[in-house]
Amino acid sequence: MLQTATTTSGQTVLLTTFFVRDSVYGLDAAGIQEVIRVGALTVVSHSPKEVTGIVNLRGKIVTILDLGMRLGFTQAVTSGDSRIFIIEDRNEFIGLLVDRVDEVVEVERDQWQVPPANVPCGQARFFQGVCRVLDRVITVLDPSQILGEGVQ
Amino acid sequence: MSQTNLKDDSLCEYLAECSEHLATIEIDLLAIEAKAPDIDEQLVNRVFRAAHSIKGGAGFFDLPKIRQLAHKTESVLDMIRSRQMEPAPEVVSILLLAFDKLGELVQNVEGSNLVDISEFVAALAGLAENHLPADRKNSITEQVAIALPDSGWHIQASAFDLSQARRGGKSIYLIEYDLIHDIQRRGRKPLEVLNALMHSGQLLESVFDLDSAGTLDEEPSNRLLLEVLYATALEPDLICRLVDVPPERILLIPKDGVAIPLTSWKGPDGVAPPTEPVEFLLPAQVPLPSLSPRSEGSLVNGTERSVKNAPAPPLAPSETTIRLNVSLLDNLMTLAGELVLSRNQLNESLSRKDQRGIRSGAQRVSLVTSELQEIVTLTRMQPVGSLFAKFTRLVRDLARDLGKEVLLTVEGGDVEIDKTILEGLGDPLTHMVRNAVDHGIETPAERSAAGKHPCGTVTLKASHQAGQVVIEMADDGRGLAVEKIAAASVAKGLVTREQLLTMPERDKMALIFLAGVTTAGKLSDVSGRGVGMDVVKTNLDRLGGKIEIDSTLGRGSRFRIKLPLTLAIIPSLLVSNCGQRFAIPQVNVGELIRVRTGQTGLRIERVGEAEVLSVRGRLVPLVHLSDTLGTQRANYEVRPMNVVLVDTGAFEYGLVVEELHDTVEIVVKPLGRHLKGLAEYAGATILGDGRVAVILDVAGLAARARLSIGAIESAARSGSLADTPVGEVHSLLLFHNSPDETCAVPIEQVSRIERLKVAQVEYIAGRRVMQYRGASLPLVTLRDTASVQELCAEQRWVVIIFERLGRPLGLLAAEPLDMVEATLEIDTVTFRQRGIAGSAVLKGRTLLFLDIFELADAAQPEIVCLEERAPTRASSSGMVPTVLVADDSDFFRGQIQRLVEAIGCRVLAAEDGQAAWELLDRHSGEVDMVATDIEMPRMDGLALTRKIRADRRFATLPIIALSSLAGDEEIARGMAAGVDEYQVKLNKEELMESIRNAIGRRSKDPASLECQTPRDKE
């Protein structure tokens, strides 16, 4: 899924946009398996702080990461608008908790720009690029960086 | 290219086949060896065929090293088959090693062409050569080129093979297969074709004719030729039917002549026109142009380099593919279909709101699910025999190395167990079998001396028992030295002596699984058993297995491993804390304890920061699940406390949880990578309501709570020592005679404690006895010698077993039992009676100190009479050994004195160090050994020791320090002062051994006596 986003120039990419706190972010829609509501979460104590908990997704145990915390914000407060994006990465299903799903937009791959230079280094690795849609700036996230290696 | 595709597909198949062949070869070879000098042709044939098909395929896939090695083994096997060679152990050893190497090559096919196998080839060729008549010796290394009518020669084979084949009256054919037309287009697979050929004959050689494929510059030739040199008993007219190739591409190779195409063959009487010499004898060293595909030379070099740089792949990767019976898959398919139908039925009933339909649908789903679960589990099942098989070789090789004779018998190899468990079982079982052969089984000489058959037996047995698989490994060797294990464990501080006393024999043996015991090395010195057994235990714990030991000294040992059928679904206890549920695997759960409100203060004690729960006299450390999770503890003032006693394998502790739920079967699912590092969780599972519960790993949880064996031990120790701050501490066993009479004996004098019912006591021939370990144990009561009250039947009786003069003796007593460590003033006057040495007061209670020796002597005076002669015997052989005993306590001094006298020694007793020194000074030439207490008035034991050591007369005099509790520091101080040995007071075996050693040393060492004499005269 990552390949399609990075290697196809001149093509359009469908971005699922969503809110984390007040900013709009986008993820390649092709990489998102499904979007689920926040249901019964099982909290795992002593887990890394960005792990919200684990859920049962049709027989699979899926780890839910707080995307906001991953990006450096404070812990998410789940509301009725909160959703979990299920993404498959390295043979594992992982969930990303976001505050609110926005829309799906089509953007030209060419129009992506590199993240601005003043983005802190720690965050920059999560960003694939930024693009403007209408009057908004959408930060496109790199799912494999966001999901990370986990605990070795 | 079609060739590579062809190869990719079939190569895997070939390799899988090779592995299968190799797996059976080893067993067969060992069987062949066992039957030597008889030859079971069927067996040899089977191995031969296996080697043969490995060779055949290797030729096809261009794996020269594999082919060469397989070929050489084949030659040797052929000679065994035709009785030109005997399958002697040396021969079989070389074959086994060669097949091992072959296995390695097959595992690592890509690199196989670069592996050096010359050593093996030479060994095998040497074998063949040694057994051949002189005139055929050369044939081993000779290569013969086969003459073809058109192009001279193209293919070559070993002269040895040809002559071997011809000796069997076989005809040799050269068959030219066109892989594309003859095989692929007809929907056949090359391997199938080769296998069919091998079924009725022997493939001598197979070579790809790469020229036939044409070069890149030319037009593709549309032909890919495989030339196969084939030896078979089939007549030329039959061969066409077998190979399904036009007769013009089959050539008959006569013994001496140019190959004849079958089309021009005229039958056995036909005219064959050979006029020119046809066999070109070439030495093997000469490079042969057609042997290796030159056209690919540069390419091969390129891959060689890359292969060399690549890291070597692991030798035995765990299998990723599994062979399944098709019927199982069919069953699964049927069930899947069934499941779909049931779902439809459910959906339909739901939409119609048909309650009955829903119920029956749910029932059907549940039925299908259980069946599905059962069959899926079956697909993972593999027979234990595949694991057992590899031990035949291990035992054989090890026994040969150690110069022992060991026979391995295997039972129940068809018992099936989950693949994962089977794989995990390999290492521990190997370790145990190795131990059994190495340490368990004695050398043939030792065995004969012990009246056993010189050939030892190791038995591996698998069976099903109550939904578990039981694997048993038994040997008829020397057995485990239980007491040595126990002693080593005490020395390591892993258990206390008090724990040992009440410990069943079986648990004592299990001490070898404790980490410290095994790594100590000390244990293996004395008993030779148990190095690395803790690793065995850890491995088995991981598999959810339990291990039990049963061993009789001199008769052998038996290890029983109980394993679950599968790891994927395990029974677990569900508990909850703060509304969150957790699963604890049932194998870890020992018992559940509920501490009622108001009892918490009574049953739970605090040792420093830590909380401990006393469970039947044991102190069990407590861990609050709330604490480890970082949540608020419940208020146990108002609600009962639920404690799950969990066993980590190394130690047990009590896990305090808020609520206990059911025991359910859970499906273990792995946690995601972000949570992998958390040792306190073993995985997660989905509960009936669809929510997730994490599975607790009790060992990891203990680590999280910073609980370790050390902490537990020290908790237990400091708990019992809390009220005895200073002075010499004695460990005492307290028990009751009548309910008001509390008695005490030093714990060291007790060998065991057994519970018994009043009915077990028998009165035979005027004696009170009970059955104990297959013999009659004489029983005494304190009432036999002293005027005390009688034991009453309402009390719970115990038998305290002592030893007197090597014979066990049981003292009837009553519970409650207690173990105390206390500093006591023993009054030897007030209560002095026969059997009662004295009394002391502890916590307001009067304790009667028993004199075991008096009791025993009163009960069985005849034994004493028998034994009284022992010293006389000793004196007739020389002098009566003399031991100087120093102890300030009358009671202990008396007991030690009796102990020493019982061995037949004279005792000089002193009530303190000063008195001891004076005695020693007076009897300087007579004393053979000093046994001294440490804490004494006037001069303590250490000062005494220093004084003795300072005197040249006593430089070599053995000094044993007797103490009740010896810490490492204290021992170090003693050693510095010159003490030879530290012993626990009243430990009979140790003391006797030291005395024997000391006396043995002195009688052998007259110098020490002589050097005293001049000093004496001064």
Please give the structural blueprint:
The complex is a heterodimer of chains A (152) and B (1018).
Chain A: H1 2-7, E1 12-20, E2 23-28, E3 32-37, E4 51-57, E5 60-66, H2 67-70, E6 83-89, E7 92-98, E8 100-108, H3 121-124, E9 127-133, E10 136-141, H4 143-147
Parallel strand pairs in A: 2-10, 5-7
Antiparallel strand pairs in A: 1-2, 1-8, 3-6, 4-5, 6-7, 9-10
Chain B: H1 2-35, H2 41-60, H3 64-81, H4 89-107, H5 109-112, H6 118-130, E1 143-148, E2 152-158, H7 159-167, E3 171-178, H8 179-184, H9 190-200, E4 201-209, E5 225-232, H10 236-243, E6 250-253, E7 260-261, E8 280-282, H11 297-309, H12 326-352, H13 355-379, E9 381-383, H14 385-402, E10 406-411, E11 416-418, H15 419-440, H16 444-449, E12 456-465, E13 468-475, H17 482-491, H18 497-502, H19 505-510, H20 515-519, H21 522-526, H22 533-542, E14 546-552, E15 556-564, E16 569-577, E17 580-585, E18 589-595, H23 600-603, E19 604-607, E20 610-615, E21 618-624, H24 625-629, E22 641-647, E23 652-657, E24 659-667, E25 681-686, E26 692-696, H25 698-704, H26 709-721, E27 730-736, E28 742-746, E29 750-756, E30 762-764, E31 767-772, E32 775-780, E33 797-804, E34 807-822, E35 836-842, E36 845-850, H27 852-859, H28 861-876, E37 882-886, H29 890-902, E38 906-910, H30 913-922, E39 927-933, H31 941-950, E40 959-963, H32 968-977, E41 981-984, H33 988-1004, H34 1006-1010, H35 1012-1017
Helix pairs in contact in B: 1-2, 1-4, 1-14, 2-3, 2-9, 3-4, 3-6, 4-6, 12-13, 14-15, 15-22, 27-28, 30-31
